[in-house]
Amino acid sequence: MEKHWKSVISRSVCDYFFDHQRKASSPEDIPPVIATPHHYLISVYRSSMFFVAVCTTEVAPLFVVEFLHRVVDTFEDYFSECTESIIKEHYVVVYELLDEMLDNGFPLATESNILKELIKPPNILRTIANTVTGKSNVSSTLPSGQLSNIPWRRTGVKYTNNEAYFDMIEEVDAIIDKSGSTVCAEIQGYIDCCIKLSGMPDLSLSFVNPRLFDDVSFHPCVRFKRWESERVLSFIPPDGNFRLMSYHIGSQSIVAIPVYVRHSLCLRESGSGGRLDITLGPKQTLGRTIENVVLEIPMPKSVLNCGLVTNQGKYTFDPVSKLLVWEVGRIDVTKLPNIRGTISLQSGSPPVEANPSINVKFTINQLAVSGLKVNRLDMYGEKYKPFKGVKYITKAGKFQVRM
Amino acid sequence: MYAPGVNSSTTLSSSSSYNNDRPPSAEAVEVATDPASGGFFNSDYKKHDDLKQMLDSNKDNLKLEAMKRIIGMVAKGREASDLFPAVVKNVVSKNIEVKKLVYVYLVRYAEEQQDLALLSISTFQRALKDPNQLIRASALRVLSSIRVTMIVPIVMLAIKDAAADMSPYVRKTAAHAIPKLYSLDQDQKEELIQVLEKLLYDKTTLVVGSAVMAFEEVCPERIDLIHKNFRKLCSLLVDVDEWGQVVIINMLTRYARSQFTDPNLQDVDEDEESKRPFYEDENEVEEEQQEKRAPTLDPDHRLLLRSAKPLLQSRNAAVVLSVAQLYHHTAPRSEVHQVAKAMIRLLRSHREVQDIVLTSIAATATRRKVMFEPFLKSFFVRSSDATHIKLLKLEILTSLATESSVGIILRELQTYVAAHDPPFVAAAIQAIGRCASNIKEVTDTCLNGLVSLLSNKDQAVVAESVVVIKKLLQTQPSAHREIIIQMAKLVDSVTVPQARASILWLLGEYSERVPKIAPDVLRKMAKTFTSEEDIVKLQVMTLAVKLCLTNPKQTKLLCQYVLQLAKYDQNYDLRDRARFLRHIIFPADAESGGPTRLSKQAKKIFLAPKPAPVPESHFKDREQFQLGSLSHYINTKANGYQELPPFPLEAPDPKARDVETEPQVMEQAPLFTAKKVSSKKDSTFYSDTESPEDESEEDENSSDEDDDDDEEEEASSSDKDDDDNEDEESSGLEEKLPIKVVKSTAKPKSDEEEEEDESDEEDSSSESVSDSDSEDESSEPSSVPKKQVRNAKPAKESTPVAKPKSNLDLLLDLDDVSPAFTPIMTPSLGGFLTPMSTPSSQVKTQLFPDIQPASAVISPNTTSELLNKINSNGLEIKYRFTRSPHLYSPSMASAELTFHNHGPDELTDIRVGEKPTSGGVSIHDFAPIPSLSPGSSLMGTIGVDFADSTQPVNFEIKIGSDRTYPVALKVPVGEVIRAVAMSEELFLKQQGGLRGMNENTAKLSLTKPCTDLKSLTNKILTVANLGVIPNSDSSTLRFAAQTLSSKSTVLVSLLSSDNQNLTITVNCEKMVIGSMLITQLKACLAD
Description:
The structure holds 2 protein chains of 2 kinds.
Chain A: H1 14-23, E1 33-35, E2 40-46, E3 49-55, H2 61-79, H3 84-89, H4 91-101, E4 102-103, E5 106-107, H5 112-118, H6 124-133, H7 144-147, E6 163-176, E7 182-196, E8 202-207, E9 215-218, H8 224-230, E10 232-235, E11 240-249, E12 259-266, E13 273-282, E14 291-298, E15 303-310, E16 314-318, E17 323-329, E18 338-345, E19 357-365, E20 374-380, E21 387-402
Parallel strand pairs in A: 6-21
Antiparallel strand pairs in A: 1-2, 2-3, 4-5, 6-7, 7-11, 8-10, 8-20, 9-11, 12-13, 13-18, 14-17, 14-19, 15-18, 16-17, 19-21
Chain B: E1 11-14, H1 27-33, H2 48-56, H3 60-76, H4 84-88, H5 96-109, H6 114-118, H7 121-127, H8 133-145, H9 152-163, H10 168-184, H11 189-200, H12 205-218, H13 224-227, H14 230-236, H15 242-259, H16 268-275, H17 280-293, H18 299-308, H19 317-330, H20 333-336, H21 340-346, H22 351-367, H23 369-372, H24 387-400, H25 406-417, H26 422-438, H27 443-453, H28 459-475, H29 481-490, H30 497-509, H31 517-528, H32 534-550, H33 552-567, H34 572-585, H35 597-600, H36 602-606, H37 630-634, H38 664-668, H39 674-678, H40 690-697, H41 703-720, H42 722-735, H43 740-762, H44 765-798, H45 807-813, E2 824-825, E3 832-833, H46 842-847, E4 852-853, E5 864-867, E6 875-885, E7 893-901, E8 907-912, E9 922-924, E10 929-932, E11 937-945, E12 953-959, E13 963-969, E14 977-981, H47 984-992, E15 999-1005, H48 1013-1023, E16 1027-1028, E17 1036-1043, E18 1049-1056, E19 1061-1068, H49 1071-1086
Antiparallel strand pairs in B: 2-3, 4-14, 5-6, 6-7, 7-11, 8-10, 8-12, 9-11, 12-13, 14-17, 15-19, 16-17, 17-18, 18-19
Helix pairs in contact in B: 2-3, 3-5, 7-8, 8-9, 8-10, 9-10, 9-11, 10-11, 10-12, 11-12, 12-15, 14-18, 15-19, 19-21, 22-24, 24-26, 25-26, 26-27, 26-28, 27-28, 28-30, 29-30, 30-32, 31-32, 31-33, 32-33, 32-34, 33-34, 41-42, 41-43, 42-43, 43-44, 44-45, 48-49
Family (chain A): Belongs to the adaptor complexes medium subunit family.
Keywords (chain A): Cytoplasmic vesicle, Golgi apparatus, Membrane, Protein transport, Transport
Membrane topology (chain A): Peripheral membrane protein
């Protein structure tokens, strides 16, 4: 699928891209910027699709990358997921969206609230209604938000139930070395909101311990000055789902590691076998249970198969990608989950020098591992009493244990 | 994608691993056969006929269907141009969706079907006049996108019209259209620049981003267009949309590089030092010193950096990186490190973002090591990273290594060597090598580590280690005989040609150290010569020649043998080299004579000492490109790249950026520093920051918001650092020429804070308590009346004859303010929008029109004497009312004092002594003058609240410790009021409520007939601080004001029945003021 904004460029430029694609061992390895004799191809890889932009002149590459990601975000927002078949199905909407988002190579409207007013997202009900009434999905008036000082919010929002939900998601990024000590650990946090409030609410959210924040970035709606002086998030929210803020805690403060992995993997045993034994246990969880634990171990190429026994959950081993996945589930403190068994190696292959690392995934509900807490949420500007809710989740981000 | 001659085709290709190997050309086919693809993708050529029929039908949904199918074809890149005539007809369609799709089609094919495309033009011309702004804008968008040279004049005209359009959205579209037209016809440049200039002056955030983008594409060299807009751009920056921010910052970076001097100029030497790791500590010390030195930055330069800084918190990675490059390229060295944290944050983002940011960091890290050192751990590699990201991280890690951190880094590198990713492992080994040669302390450890890698089972690891060791040994060969021997042994086992070549080279170079082994190795190599790789063969020859020179007895024959073999090699390089070497070493073959000159020198030629290679980051040479640009990323100059100019040695005239003072700005300047306000914010939410600041939101001119920022910042900086304070203050003073008045009042303000600090320390505690008490008291009423203005408006509407309220009343008033008045804030600055600026509340605006403080149009130059030089032994003080609100409290009139020392002695410590305390009169002191040398003069500002009376205010001026002079500050009635703006409608309404006792009327006839009202207006405005009310009636002049303390309305109207006779009416709640004012006006007009 292609869309041109300036003079037409032949599809054949993509050949350069496909060349690179063929060379790369995995889709992730394709460089985001490819220089060809006359054009520059800038691509992003999302949900197993490549989105490629072709530029002819100097431009900040991040500008393009960021825009392409925004395009994909918009698609996801419109069609709830962004896959090849969905894009093919809704190609007209996609085309209309692209047309609104970019004019002559410069982004025009990228706020989802505005776009949704211009082009209504498809749903079955509206499709039927449109065929009956002959109305179209495209609005004929300029969304008021576009002109106002708060372009992210549409006007005239009305809800019967006024609700504001905040999800505080924290991801623990860590590298744990062989002996179990932490090489580096950081917390990456997000505050995702789902706000369904009528009118023009003006919210302010304060924290019990805002000193924890190391570095923050905000949705454009947040008033930066207010944050600087009082550490309060004060904003007029966009309508619907959006990411209010993301923050980073690390370097200075000590990060609690909620899980430990005791492991032994031996691939050098005589004969053609190796042994694996892994035990998981909770650590610094403040009394919460650790759920949805999954271990992923990319095994070396010489591993043929695994014969393992688990006392909890089940494991799979994909002999093609050599990925061992153990879905543990919840960690029970009284009976620690364990996996053990033998690994069959390809005979004759050179012995493996080093062991792979384990990627750990987990979630802990109702806990923000950094200890961050919302103090209160106030609403000004509207009279009704909204329903407010805050949810805390801790997840594993890039949590890696070296064996 | 903004500048790119964008053809941004967004290609979506399925890419799961299984179809990687399919030929790319199969894409179209694949899509068609894919069962998942939607029905329209299958439409094929046969259906063109019925498509035409559908388009010709008069049913909208059929047309829509047809258009959708056609767009499907366009999207797939299939030829659909033969449908052009049928499609173009539908450009007039009423159905907005059909129309949109037709537009899309038109833009795609108009270039190919020029003649037919012209048919549609008239429709667009009509649409350009449409009352709906969206339609106007989209018509212009499509019109300008039609790449047909014939219509250039039409587009030009359309752009000119649109640039002056009411709607900012249309103006934005006009800005977008400019580069389009420019690319179509370069001859239009001059005319386009004129339009662009107009658009650059635009103050709407929506427009400026696009205007700057157009500027960058059409005329980036016309830097002179930016001068006048520079300050505006800086202040609007935070509110512009994210894409606009990127463009503006990039442009301003270039601007800063051409207009300001290098902030790091005075310490070029340190710069050099900082490149060398050994001087790290000293460098830090130097940096501290530099901070103390307080870099003399151009105020505008400072403004730019300051307004860009909040954007580091943006969610858009492109914005963050552009701020980072701004700091990297233009900021003083001590400030650059501020951006590091934000850049590190970006590393959590998408893979592509990571890659680009890491490239930028890698380039920055070669020059600014200290900046990223605290974040070393963020660059540790995870096995899940993509290979190119791993390599970049390694690059950065090695650049960052210092004596202190190298331990941790080496431990990490050691783990990486064991990874499964061959290119990454190789890079890790090279990284160890770089660390070893950069940091002398660890060279031996590294070398040992590398040698132990030689026994690694992985061939690739061994080979890479050999190459790295070879490089390392060159720096210090003497000590490492064993290593050379061990490597010589490896020749038997290593198969990687690169490694073999390295070993051979090493042996040849240091053959004296291993005299027994080298010939043996040569013998072995001669045996296998024919089966070696080219690169190895070359080294075998080199080894043979070198040995032949040092040890001819054992090796001369071998050498001849090798050369003989090479003579018949397939590779011409080898044959060439062999011939060349033979003629030097064995000249006898060529001529029968003795050794030639060359052969005598052969030893010098082949065994010359060679300099050790210096492993350098390959990111070093990227310095020449602007950080974060495409050229920087690909490390070659991209099409259309704008070079970053070097800093000029002498800054061009900063006055170019001065803009004529815009009168409105002054009154609006918010009068509170953040500190004061926040101290009271826990009471009710009405009394927190929001109230005083919402003033500034009133008009769209956000430059005053910016003042607000600056003040806050300055206030806080004065807290932090007293040394800096002076500099900061004075620079701030110059910085804001357009809003001079605000600044000059700001200065005493923070001086005053300082003074308070001092007094706290020196004086008894009781005094300091009272001091702060008085401040509390006065700051409270000061904020209250302001609110009252706002909140009492509706009240005034209903009871126009409301009596002036005391401060206490006003406080009580606050409680019954309806929540509808809660201000709404703007995004970034924490400034506030009153409800009226949001569209939803526009209705309210009409119901309760506002009285807004306006700025004085004229500031009188008449000065009066406060203290006579004879009375005071030499000190003369004059005063003049500036008509700007005093910073301390809006109810104070500010008077500019000029101190002049006529006496022979230096006067020290001039300050205000006793002040009046009764009758609501209060004084805010001028900043005490520590010393005034003979013949010199100084300025100061004093704030006086006259409590709406014209009684002179008596106070004392103290000089030194003993001299005290009583003075009286007289105020003309015209200065106890302040100009306000209101609508004519409201004026009449208010006037209706102020009849009877509150009305004073006077008639007078002018001595000479007055022809124009303008001169009359000027006369009146000189006498009194009145605001002119827009007028529909030409024979009447109307003015409005408020008294400073109680905010009572003062209305003046002037009716001229003919040119000679005038009727003046003054309506004022305060009868005294009213009658005095009318007398004064009469007197002035009679002149």
